[in-house]
Amino acid sequence: MINPRAFPLGRVDIRRTAPRRGRLLGDFAFVSPTQGEVTVSSGFETDYASIPRVFWSIYPPDGDYTEAAVVHDYLYWYQPCTRAEADRVFLEAMEALGIPWHRRHILHKAVRMGGWIAWNKNQKERQLAET
């Protein structure tokens, strides 16, 4: 069950814009025990959870951890903290959503192992956009 104190603005409201992309229709926030409040603004684009297709039957990209994935995508795009801290917030958000221990730790381990690819790609894309 979702912890309402951790999500003060309620559940995320997303309009799907492509099979693996969505745009937030309103502001969304998560209160992290380690990073404080993370507010994702309306209009932010997410690719949900970046899970390889072979695992979609078990872990779909837009599963019951979507709110955690949106916060994680936001932190990976703007990078206001380290990658390890962003991955920790992903784990915290899944816990606040009531995701079972084994599922959230599998997903957390996956982002710890492969998240560097998206982190570095986002960093380069942001730098290009700023020039």
Radius of gyration: 14 Å
Which structural category do the helix and sheet elements fall into? alpha+beta
Topology order in helix (H) and strand (E) letters: EEEEEHHH
Number of strand segments:
5
User: Level of helix content?
Assistant: 40-55%
What gross morphology would you assign? globular
Largest sheet: 3 strands, antiparallel
Distance between the termini: 44 Å
Q: How would you name the oligomeric state of the polypeptide chains in this document?
A: single chain
What are the segments in which pLDDT stays under 50 over at least 5 consecutive residues?
none
Q: How many helical elements?
A: 3
Percent strand equals: 15-25%
Q: What is the overall pLDDT average?
A: 93
Query: What's the arrangement of strands in the largest beta sheet?
Result: 1-2-5
How would you describe the overall organization of this protein?
The protein has a domain of 83 residues. The radius of gyration is 14 Å and the shape is globular. It is built from three helices and five strands, in the order βββββααα. The strands form two sheets. The protein has a three-stranded antiparallel beta sheet. It is of the alpha+beta class and 131 residues long.
